[in-house]
Amino acid sequence: MHLQDFKLERFLAQYEFSAPHLLCTSDCESVHLADLLAMEEGAEGRFKDLWLGYTESAGGPEVRREVAGMYSAVGPDEVIVTAGAEESIFLCMHAMLGPGDHVVVQSPAYQSLHEVARSIGCRVSHWTLCDEDGWRPDIEALKDHVTRETEAVVINTPHNPTGCHMTREEFQAVRDIAEDAGAWVFSDEVYRLLEYDPASRLPPMADIYEKGVSVGVMSKAFGLAGLRIGWTATRDAELRRRVAALKDYTTICCSAPSEFLTALALRHADEIVDRNLGIIRSNLALLDAFFERHADRFAWVRPTAGAIGFPRLLTGESVEAFAVRTVQESGVLLLPSTAYEYGDSHFRVGFARTDLPAALQAFEAYLDGRTA
């Protein structure tokens, strides 16, 4: 196994903790520990009394029960708690796939969704989204990619980085196509709960397909990236067994304080998510107005769910060069599409933090100064 450098993470590592204005964040606004503990009477005392020993490898009963509560057909014993979604991706890919297997991956994508499979020796086909189509998934193109040799279809909805969200019909079509081929559906659902229209919320893939794998995390919709807690939900017992066996070689178990705080947050999920959706809606209005003012520079396909979007730079210059120059000259950080191995003309914007207005103001001042 040989993994290529993670382009997105390497790019962010250069600037993320030094740039004053982060306009490309993928998570929601976080909270202070004291604020989270204050959500539940007695939580602070229980937290202070927490035993700092090992936890169960699959996750403690309390946190697995709270995670399972977000599913209708998945029970606590069908959840494996991991160190973020990244560990879930890594373990599941190794548990599901082998050298020579064929995998279809929705593209653009978070790099590990295709790179881990490639490093195993899989044949990876990219099911590519285009902004000319409003980032809508082409179901007929997926049918062309999936064959009887396909071992897994990898999807992400709401989508990173475009903000596109599958319709119920599209989501079910993915399941049906995979089922006909006998393939897994690995569904990255880390932005689930951030649908702007609650009626558009989809069921987890693990609920509607026996070979469905749903991955969630506390980092995105909940804004609790510092907990480093994610999970895998699947009803397939053999896959869970293989994932659990592989986890013995990675983290063995997760942090006891993080599991406690995750369970606490999930009991107050509505309050946390509602606050974050309020921030998103307010910031989206600012972005809509910004991109309307700068329609000669950028093409904006408005996201339908999630915390990020993927506008196109229309000036013809390299978006990576534009992003580097922007952060160096203005302190505003954008994420170029080269980090997704998706050409050199788009960039990611994030709009689920309260500091977006200041970051957007700094970006606009920089743009206006360049053309003055």
Automatic annotation (TrEMBL):
<feature type="domain" description="Aminotransferase class I/classII large">
    <location>
        <begin position="51"/>
        <end position="355"/>
    </location>
</feature>
<keyword id="KW-0032">Aminotransferase</keyword>
<dbReference type="GO" id="GO:0030170">
    <property type="term" value="F:pyridoxal phosphate binding"/>
</dbReference>
<dbReference type="Pfam" id="PF00155">
    <property type="entry name" value="Aminotran_1_2"/>
</dbReference>
<dbReference type="InterPro" id="IPR015422">
    <property type="entry name" value="PyrdxlP-dep_Trfase_small"/>
</dbReference>
<dbReference type="InterPro" id="IPR015421">
    <property type="entry name" value="PyrdxlP-dep_Trfase_major"/>
</dbReference>
<keyword id="KW-0808">Transferase</keyword>
<dbReference type="InterPro" id="IPR015424">
    <property type="entry name" value="PyrdxlP-dep_Trfase"/>
</dbReference>
<protein>
    <submittedName>
        <fullName>Aminotransferase class I/II-fold pyridoxal phosphate-dependent enzyme</fullName>
    </submittedName>
</protein>
<dbReference type="InterPro" id="IPR004839">
    <property type="entry name" value="Aminotransferase_I/II_large"/>
</dbReference>
<dbReference type="GO" id="GO:0008483">
    <property type="term" value="F:transaminase activity"/>
</dbReference>
